[in-house]
């Protein structure tokens, strides 16, 4: 048996197979990538049956993965010829030359102007509009007889509604929804010159409007999508500002949950402007190689044709951008009308960096944590900081010299040693051993070492995707100097590090404390139904942690959360009025909410470890202590704890690492609120990579720093553990 | 330094009766040995007296003070465990000092007491080691030191020698007895080894299945066992038991052999069937002997020989002084100097 032969064969095969596949699909096939699901996907399948051109190979890609897959496939000639994506990504695709002019696939005069604008960059069309998505106004027909013409009218209706029913449900603290009001005030989220738009008089007016609505109780506080859906579906909202997905959520097998209709958003009387939602145009886009093939362009035109649009409208309630294909479905018609009165989302890459500051400022203001102007100006600064030019390109000579020198030195040492007979002999004898570990080395290399090296290398680069250059240690310098700002300002590495350390220490302390307490209770032999308690106590650990995190986030909701409910009930019982706490508006409370969630998630692990460790403490040693005169607490403190300590150290170490990197809880519960202060290093790194203009190099530098810190912590704890173990011995 | 009184102490684990109505009184400063077969409840009784187990029924008094519901630390007792149960994470010094520290003794007092005990037990050079760096005998000494250092009213030992090798066992046994005599506390000592029990005890308590069989000075228990169990358990080699019947002033064994009842044997109704107990040391070789003993195996111990063989059909062991024994297959005539009679049904000694 020669294991390496198999290895080589497998490697060669994996290399050759895709090449073979590549060779075959050059013969005229059309490759289509899309992110459609459910009815939309079914509609596509139906359409393909009536397509008379070359075979179409369809690949469904998750929406979140689509853009990165395109970016890594198309430049190497591997990607699709045609793909369906939201138009707002076009700017980025255009910059990276992943898309080309669609040419004759675009039928002039067939689409509404907003959709045409959406796919146009510098006068050329880079997509064929397929469908439009935007918010519109849902009206509960049981609660509303006559729909007022303006937002103020809707607010006025609030007085007449039954107790417990809000007038208008929408995600007030989400910039996407707020944009509709901003547009009515003449503002934009991003200006045409790539400067931050959500600042200045228009933005302030739009916020005044919302503050008035919140103060008058017209709109629910801190509403997220799920809350909007729930309120409207249960008849607790007269109006909702939401997208087509709400219609899908309202449909039940027995018909709609409430009697409603949809119409375009109303006017804003204060500015005499119309509420205009942001518009997303789903478009067929062509890769450069696809655009060059006439049959691909013909297929794009086919997907966008009137017949295809009608099919999608019928099956999936897709709202076409065509002017010549009106739908019979009143909801689709309403959304189509809204599409003509909407503002296409900016295609500029800078748009991606605008969301986070806009959302942060909006949340902060609506919670009443900061004056309007101040928060908006701060948001503008934040935007500018993200959009600052990448560090200048550096010559990689120094790095290459260092790496080259190291390699050279290694080679010299190796050659020197290879010249000694003993070493050659040793190598010859160890070859069979190497063959046995080859697969493990290979797997660890590919799965652990390689990503680590790539990540480290990435941290030395800067610039937007598709246009990266070597910047040396500039990312690290930037991070460690807090980008030139005050070292402990919000969002600075040092503040985040401080918060992360605090977060880790508090959590691990709680995990160990709770784990020990419950572990000891569970280990008591007199406890009845021990097995049941054990299962109950392990449940928090068994539930996927993002589910728990979302549940806890819901519990901390200011208006509808269980924690609020409990404190109010307690207040009623005590006869005092307790103001509902806005958990995420102060660092202390937001941090507490995060910690509570994570303590809940983390203690079962420590508990299980404790139970196991307690089993290793001999009973008679404890009895000896009892006879020696130790109380229960003294026995725990002086005997049990020192004896189980060493077995807890590895668990504490793991717990510390997990907590240090506990992205889910921070991201989902507080989301960094208020103002990014509860963010920890990983969630900060995530934001740089995925919400701030894809600054991968910068994010990778964060990751490298996290790695270095964790290695340090691990080593430190290891020492402590070894010392403790040496004392107790076997 | 107390008298210990047990009043009808019973202990049950669920439905299992482990101790059944134990009454006893151990005088102040006495060395009490609880002896019995493995599983008879010795450790349980000891733990009840120490307070590590709660008694199910009955009461325990230390010097007239009812301690039945008191925690161990309020009873002023110290215990040496079979496994020694040293604190593995503490040095020998801290192991010794721990009980005093818990009692908030002054540092100087603690140091002095630890030094004194370490000297007494000759473990001064071990004070800064951890238990895992000690041999079995050294651990045993530390465990004893931990008990002594507190100067308790009652010492307890649960089979403290069972993990030592035989030669060490003998020296430590002597040390324990000497220590008891020096310290003057009441000692309760558990063992399953009747040699240890006989050599150490002032008061011997023989237990079987959770019931006290006999309490008394070792020599009384040896001379006048209360029943067949005690008779068989105490003494080495064990007593021989033969079936017999009382005829006139003799007892007739199976096979028709008649053994005259020696002086001092209690009068028993003639014709009664009995179990005859004869200790191996209570027979003599004598040409006039009436008992024919067929030799099968001879064990030479130096000062004694133990001879295994048969009397009639029954297995019999005899012990003789000197170092030369009879040959295999020889038939010896024996005279019985002393014998015990037991009721065949109840096993109670007939006196
Ligand atoms: N915690 C317990 N639960 C149930 N049975 C026990 C327990 N402890 C001891 N026993 C039983 O009580 C009997 C006496 O045990 P023990 O006192 O340890 O005997 P020994 O005389 O050998 O020291 C044994 O049969 C043992 O199985
Ligand atoms: Mg025992």
Describe the structure.
- The complex is a heterodimer of chains A (730) and B (351).
- Chain A has 3 domains: 155 residues, Periplasmic binding protein-like II (D-Maltodextrin-Binding Protein, domain 2); 179 residues, D-Maltodextrin-Binding Protein, domain 2 (3-Layer(aba) Sandwich), CATH 3.40.190.10; 219 residues, Orthogonal Bundle (MetI-like fold), CATH 1.10.3720.10.
- Helix content of chain A is 58%, strand content 9%.
- Chain A is built from 29 helices and 18 strands.
- In chain A, β17 and β18 form a beta hairpin.
- In chain A, α18 packs across α29, α22 runs parallel beside α27 and α24 packs antiparallel against α27.
- With 351 residues, chain B is of the alpha+beta class.
- Chain B folds into 2 domains: 224 residues, 3-Layer(aba) Sandwich (Rossmann fold); 103 residues, Nucleic acid-binding proteins (OB fold (Dihydrolipoamide Acetyltransferase, E2P)).
- Chain B is 24% helix and 34% strand.
- Chain B has 8 helices and 20 strands.
- A 6-stranded mixed beta sheet of chain B has the order 6-7-8-3-9-10, sandwiched between helices. Chain B has a 5-stranded antiparallel beta sheet with strand order 13-12-11-14-20.
- In chain B, a hairpin with a 3-residue loop joins β16 and β17.
- Chain B is elongated and about 75 Å long.
- The mean pLDDT of chain B is 90.
- Chains A and B meet through α25 and α26 of A and β6 and α2 of B.
- The complex binds adenosine-5'-diphosphate and magnesium ion.
Keywords:
heterodimer; A: 730 residues; alpha/beta; D-Maltodextrin-Binding Protein, domain 2; MetI-like fold; B: 351 residues; Rossmann fold; OB fold (Dihydrolipoamide Acetyltransferase, E2P); 2 domains; 8 helices; binds adenosine-5'-diphosphate; binds magnesium ion
């Amino acid at each position: 048996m020669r294991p390496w032969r198999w290895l080589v064969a497998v490697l060669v095969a994996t290399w050759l197979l895709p090449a073979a596949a590549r060779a075959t699909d050059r013969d005229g096939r059309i490759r289509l990538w899309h992110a459609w699901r459910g009815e939309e996907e079914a509609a596509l399948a139906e359409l393909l049956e009536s397509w008379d051109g070359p075979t179409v190979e369809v690949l469904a890609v998750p929406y979140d993965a689509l853009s990165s897959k395109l970016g890594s496939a198309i430049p190497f000639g591997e990607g699709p010829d045609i793909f369906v994506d939201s138009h707002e990504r076009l700017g980025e695709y255009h910059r990276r030359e992943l898309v080309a002019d669609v040419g004759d696939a675009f039928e002039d005069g067939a689409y509404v102007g907003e959709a045409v604008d959406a796919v146009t960059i510098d006068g050329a069309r880079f997509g064929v509009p397929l469908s439009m998505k935007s918010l519109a106004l849902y009206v509960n027909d049981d609660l509303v007889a006559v729909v007022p013409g303006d937002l103020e009218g809707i607010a006025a209706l609030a007085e007449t509604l039954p107790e417990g029913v809000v007038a208008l449900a929408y995600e007030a603290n989400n910039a996407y929804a707020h944009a509709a009001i901003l547009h009515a005030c003449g503002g934009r989220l991003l200006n045409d010159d790539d400067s931050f738009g959500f600042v200045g008089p228009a933005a302030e007016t739009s916020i005044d409007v919302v503050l008035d609505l919140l103060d008058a109780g017209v709109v629910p506080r801190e509403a997220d999508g799920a809350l909007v859906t729930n309120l409207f579906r249960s008849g607790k909202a007269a109006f909702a500002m939401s997208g087509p997905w709400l219609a899908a959520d309202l449909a039940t097998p027995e018909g709609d949950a409430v009697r409603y209709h949809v119409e375009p958003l109303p006017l804003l009387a204060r500015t005499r402007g119309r509420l205009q939602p942001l518009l997303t145009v789903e478009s067929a886009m062509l890769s450069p190689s696809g655009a060059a093939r006439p049959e691909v362009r013909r297929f794009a035109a086919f997907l966008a044709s009137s017949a295809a649009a009608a099919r999608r409208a019928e099956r999936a309630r897709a709202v076409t951008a065509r002017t010549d294909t009106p739908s019979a479905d009143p909801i689709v018609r309403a959304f189509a009308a809204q599409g003509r009165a909407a503002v296409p989302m900016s295609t500029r890459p800078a748009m991606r960096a605008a969301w986070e500051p806009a959302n942060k400022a909006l949340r902060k203001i609506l919670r009443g944590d900061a004056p309007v102007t101040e928060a908006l100006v701060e948001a503008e600064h934040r935007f500018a900081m993200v959009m600052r030019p990448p560090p200048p390109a550096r010559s990689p000579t120094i790095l290459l010299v260092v790496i080259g020198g190291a390699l050279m030195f290694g080679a010299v040492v190796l050659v020197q040693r290879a010249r000694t007979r003993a070493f050659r002999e040793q190598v010859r004898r160890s070859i069979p051993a190497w063959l046995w570990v080859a697969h493990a080395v290979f797997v660890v290399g590919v799965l652990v070492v390689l990503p680590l090296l790539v990540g480290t290398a990435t941290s030395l680069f800067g610039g937007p995707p598709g246009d990266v250059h070597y910047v040396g240690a500039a990312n690290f310098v930037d991070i460690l100097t807090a980008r030139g700002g005050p070292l402990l300002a919000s969002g600075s590495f040092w503040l985040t590090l401080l918060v992360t350390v605090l977060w880790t220490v508090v959590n691990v302390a709680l995990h160990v404390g709770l784990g020990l307490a419950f572990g000891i209770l569970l280990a008591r032999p007199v406890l009845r139904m021990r097995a049941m308690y054990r299962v109950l106590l392990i449940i928090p650990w068994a539930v996927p942690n993002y589910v728990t995190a979302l549940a806890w986030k819901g519990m901390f909701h200011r208006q509808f959360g269980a924690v609020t409910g409990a404190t109010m009930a307690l207040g009623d019982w005590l006869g005092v009025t307790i103001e509902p706490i806005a958990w995420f508006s102060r660092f202390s409370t937001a941090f507490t909410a995060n910690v509570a969630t994570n303590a809940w998630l983390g203690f079962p692990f420590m508990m299980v470890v404790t139970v196991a460790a307690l089993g290793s403490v001999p009973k008679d040693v404890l009895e000896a202590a009892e006879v020696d005169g130790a109380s229960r607490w003294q026995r725990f403190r002086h005997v049990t704890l020192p004896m189980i300590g060493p077995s807890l150290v590895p668990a504490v170490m793991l717990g510390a690492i997990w907590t240090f990197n506990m992205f889910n809880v921070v991201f989902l519960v507080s989301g960094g609120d208020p103002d990014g202060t509860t963010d920890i290093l990983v969630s900060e790194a995530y934001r740089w990579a995925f919400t701030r203009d894809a600054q991968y190099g910068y994010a990778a530098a964060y990751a490298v720093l996290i790695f270095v810190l964790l290695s340090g912590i691990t080593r430190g704890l290891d020492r402590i553990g070894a010392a403790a173990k040496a004392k107790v011995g076997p | 330094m107390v008298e210990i009184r047990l009043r009808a102490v019973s202990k049950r684990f669920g439905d299992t009766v482990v101790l059944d109505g134990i009454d006893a009184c151990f005088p102040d400063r006495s060395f009490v040995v609880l002896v019995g077969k493995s599983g008879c409840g010795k450790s349980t009784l000891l733990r009840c007296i120490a307070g590590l187990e709660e008694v199910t029924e009955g009461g325990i008094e230390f010097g007239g003070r009812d301690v039945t519901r008191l925690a161990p630390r309020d009873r002023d007792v110290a215990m040496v465990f079979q496994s020694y149960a040293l604190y593995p994470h503490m040095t020998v010094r801290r192991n010794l000092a721990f009980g005093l520290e818990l009692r908030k003794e002054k540092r100087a007092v603690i140091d002095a007491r630890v030094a004194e005990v370490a000297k007494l037990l000759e473990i001064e050079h071990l004070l800064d080691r951890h238990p895992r760096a000690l041999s079995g005998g050294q651990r045993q000494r530390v465990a004893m030191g931990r008990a002594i250092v507190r100067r308790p009213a009652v010492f307890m030992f649960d089979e403290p020698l069972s993990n030592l090798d035989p030669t060490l066992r003998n020296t430590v046994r002597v040390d324990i007895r000497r220590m008891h005599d020096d310290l003057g506390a009441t000692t309760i000592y558990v063992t399953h080894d009747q040699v240890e029990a006989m050599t150490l005890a002032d008061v011997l308590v023989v237990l079987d299945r959770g019931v006290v069989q006999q309490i008394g000075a070792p020599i009384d228990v040896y001379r006048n066992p209360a029943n067949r169990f005690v008779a068989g358990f105490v003494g080495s080699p064990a007593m021989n038991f033969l079936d017999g019947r009382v005829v006139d002033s003799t007892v007739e064994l199976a096979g028709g052999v008649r053994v005259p009842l020696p002086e001092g044997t209690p009068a028993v109704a003639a014709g009664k069937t009995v179990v005859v107990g004869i200790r191996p040391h209570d027979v003599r070789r004598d040409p006039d002997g009436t008992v024919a003993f067929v030799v099968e195996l001879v064990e030479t111990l130096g000062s004694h020989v133990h001879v295994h063989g048969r009397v009639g059909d029954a297995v019999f062991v005899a012990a003789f002084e000197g170092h030369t024994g009879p040959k295999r297959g020889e038939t010896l005539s024996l005279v019985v100097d002393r014998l015990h009679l037991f009721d065949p049904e109840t096993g109670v000694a007939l006196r």
